[in-house]
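From the methods appendix. Each design record in this collection lists the tokenized structure first, followed by the designed amino acid sequence. Records were kept in a plain field format so they could be parsed without special tools. The example shown here is representative of the layout used throughout.

RECORD:
FOLD TOKENS (148 positions):
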């Protein structure tokens, strides 16, 4: 007697036809890839126009709280961003909240630093998107669908 198992989860192409899952998948991809790339860039400085580019986004009071130089602090930031991106990939219900909290911290840093309000506003939009991902991840985990 042989037994066959059938997958309870439909194939990705079929799931992407559901608008709820499609939004979840897009945000999960964004919040996996972007933090990992930005985290890696803290080490390789491909995006900055000069070598100390990332350091200029660190408020002095935060630099004073964390031991080491601003550059060392930004390496720590890079590690946290990479871990957050990986966490979104493997556990989006948790990772999305971590990314949202991280973005809140970045916003506080930028607002207290002064002069980077445009970047803080952009990051606020990302924070809201991370919160939406957290809710969508919960819905997908519980089996909700926009097509029910």
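DESIGN:
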């Amino acid at each position: 007697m042989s037994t066959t198992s059938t997958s309870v989860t439909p194939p990705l192409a079929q799931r992407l036809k559901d608008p709820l899952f499609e939004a979840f998948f897009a945000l999960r991809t964004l919040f996996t890839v972007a933090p990992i790339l930005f985290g890696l860039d803290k080490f390789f400085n491909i995006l900055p126009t000069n070598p100390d580019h990332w350091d200029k986004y660190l408020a002095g009071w935060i630099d004073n709280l964390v031991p080491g130089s601003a550059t060392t602090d930004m390496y720590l930031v890079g590690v946290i961003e990479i871990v957050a991106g990986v966490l979104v990939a493997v556990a989006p219900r948790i990772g999305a909240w971590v990314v949202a909290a991280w973005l809140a911290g970045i916003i506080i840093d930028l607002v207290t630093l002064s002069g980077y309000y445009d970047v803080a506003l952009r990051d606020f939009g990302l924070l809201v998107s991370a919160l939406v991902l957290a809710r969508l991840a919960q819905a997908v985990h519980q089996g909700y669908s926009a097509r029910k």
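APPENDIX NOTE: The chain has one domain: 16-146.
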